[in-house]
């Protein structure tokens, strides 16, 4: 296997993770798929707060698919492809959670864009695990757990709506 097809430069676990996830656009794409449930190219392109360029988005999606973090489902001729998280992609959530916590502590931000991370931090690891289970239902077709009340993604949206007045 050549490096271009996914083999890391060295056997170091940190290097391998950085090569798969280490550029900011890949992490932003994962954020938008996980938290925004954006699963089509146009949704990811038009929904990016950071203004990702179409060629960059296309490249990052190809890289994430090649790394086994996403799958790409062709929905038929002339139809949009749909991207889904793999289990490997779902397992990036704790990484994004840790990065978000660091961002809360060390970087400025706006209340409406910080609220979801603040809720996740307040709720803690059990919330992250519950969110990972919800992502397995949405992306991998796992059976939905029985719950009373809103799920984690809905709770994140409620928190956002409360801050923004939406």
UniProtKB/TrEMBL annotation:
Residues 12-111 form the HTH hxlR-type domain. SUPFAM superfamilies: Winged helix' DNA-binding domain. Keywords: DNA-binding, Transcription, Transcription regulation. One of its GO terms (molecular function) is DNA binding. Transmembrane segments: none annotated. The keyword Endoplasmic reticulum does not apply. Pfam families: HxlR. This is HxlR family transcriptional regulator.
């Amino acid at each position: 296997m050549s490096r271009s097809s996914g083999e890391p430069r060295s056997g170091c676990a940190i290097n391998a993770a950085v090569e798969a996830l280490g550029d900011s656009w890949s992490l932003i794409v994962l954020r938008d798929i996980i938290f925004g449930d954006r699963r089509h190219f146009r949704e990811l392109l038009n929904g990016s707060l950071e203004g990702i360029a179409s060629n960059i988005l296309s490249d990052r999606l190809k890289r994430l698919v090649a790394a086994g973090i996403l799958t790409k489902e062709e929905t038929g001729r002339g139809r949009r492809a749909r991207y889904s998280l793999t289990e490997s992609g779902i397992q990036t959530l704790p990484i994004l959670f840790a990065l978000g916590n660091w961002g809360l502590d060390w970087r400025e931000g706006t209340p409406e864009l910080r609220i979801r991370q603040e809720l996740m931090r307040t709720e803690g690891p059990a919330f992250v695990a519950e969110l990972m289970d919800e992502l397995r239902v949405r992306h991998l077709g796992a059976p939905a757990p029985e719950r009373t009340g809103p799920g984690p993604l809905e709770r994140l949206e409620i928190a956002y709506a409360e801050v923004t007045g939406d």
